[in-house]
Amino acid sequence: MAQDVGPILEMVTEKYLLRSEREWHGRSEAALILDDLISRLKAGDIPAIGALTERNFNGPIQTIIPWAGNLYTDTLIRRVRVELGKDFWGFWMLGGMSGGGMGFLFAPQAKASAKERLQAIMSATQHEMEHAVPFAMEPVVYDFAINEHGTQATLFKGESALMPVSYYQITVPALLRMESRLLSPGRLLELERFTAACHSVPEFQGMVQQIFERLIPQRPQKADPSQSLDALLEAHGFDRAEHEQIQAGLRSGRVGLAQNRLPISSLITDARPEDLFDATEGVSPKFHQIGKDALAEGKVAVVSFAGGAGSRWTKGAGVVKALNPFCRLGGKHRSFLEVQLAHSRRTGRLCGTPLPHVITTSYLTHDAIQEHLAAQRNYDYPGPLLLSPGRSIGLRFVPMERDLRFAWEELPQQLLDEQAQKVRESLHSTLIAWARQVGEGASYTDNVPMQCLHPVGHWYEVPNMLRNGTLLRLLDERPRLKYLLIHNIDTTGADVDPGLLGYHIAEGAALTAEVIARQVEDRGGGLARVDGRLRLIEGLALPSEEAESLLSWYNSATYWIDLDQLLAAFGLTRNDLTHKEKVHSAVRTLAVRMPTYITLKDVKKRWGKGQEDIFPVAQFEKLWGDMTSLPEFSCRFVAVPRKRGQQLKEPAQLDGWLRDGSADFVESLCDWGN
Fold it and tell me: CA 310 to CA 308: how far, in whole Å?
């Protein structure tokens, strides 16, 4: 598993130091299991040992570490037990989160066949879950042998003190690219020894040619034409006119890293108590009745944003966050997607009308989500379940020198030791020279296509429904549809609450945004008065970090939408949805009014034979919360309990989410349908 276990270790340490009662009882049980295990080991009772290690995994380990194991682990155990039956003696967890390995104990007569079948089961299960669980490598069944000599070492001296050939194949090209004055004396001596070995040591014959091949960029192999950059841009709705407009703004200085921020002269103050409706303790019964009536009449649909790969959630492992089985709920590991569908299933059952649910996707997530839902038979969801594929995509830019200097010289940076600082400054100078040479603000196309593309922000998720026909399909199926609840897939407590829906309807607003009381870990803007106007403000737009600390309310990214007022903001009506060109033009026109945020991302360019470089590139995004800045767009703001509005962005949040009752709250909103 490619998972960050740091938060898990912190959690275990914290509970140990605090002597948390439940976990302390778990440790006591583990100590008793250990005593029993030692006695069974002395007696040579291996079946009993297997039963005890599995009991320890299912009991004390998961009491102390609720995140030990995952859906992959559970599935392997279940499938092995079904296939091997009584010859499977028990499971043995060797690591904290499946990453350190797993042991399966089998009867001796079944060992050979069990090894073969276990490898097949692991590989097949990994293939099924490759888009949901962050795998670091192909699963392997290891064969171990006892080393009768223990740990040994051989001391090489003088000219014979060389590392293996493979070490130099990886290390030397990087050293040769650096200026010699930046190399330490040890590195210079290492290169000198390597050069001498190339002339005299047989194993090093031909190394100069291999190193030279790694230094020279390799011609990329011909790619599938359907996966070419132009083909992908066409398939995913690239808007060239918008791209050129943003490119012109980037080159002229109208947009950029510094321009993300509002002017320093902007007056940003906290929202007043009377600025928002307090629903943290519930709402009036009259609002509940209004909401229930709208649900029963089929006027409501849910839209879950699932276009992101969740790089913060899995530290860039490349899985689809919506499909990640993040927690055990209702006796099974559940994904973010299954939780949201369980919310809507429950709401539909209570109101007597199945609730339409739309999942918005992107080029990063669509195929995986579509295949997953097909494999799970849509989780037997009773209402209309639609996928809204992305119809907006961005092409990255070569960064502007001013943006690189702003990021490296004006934003806070960790100060390194003298030698490392010199290396970093030299690298920055080289990358600035690269941007000048290639052309500042030029379209970034000198890489594999997927490294040239980028998501364009969740503002486009709702316009995509207009562009790809999803909203039209929804209206054909539910002509009385009038209200949408839109939210991020990781806001696990968000559901169609009749009271909040009723408040939104009673107010007659175009948009009602849910906010939660800000805590220390909440970063990224919130509810504020900007030059006197109440609106949501993004963290990227705040002129200083101090301004964020003034805001009491954090944006939960959950919104209630009046569909007809939304269409009016785009200059459209329901009848216009069949006219594609009119829809595209309307989306482009409103997009121009939305702030454009520029960010820098590091992308890898692989040359082949282990050689790769990392370049900074610029990309843009537009965010849905900025709709509240439109003067003609009527907005309301409602404070909701944190259990409803908290977003799960990093695994480090899971323990607190479990302990503060949020997990139980989420489970109470779910109808699993099984």
Answer: 5
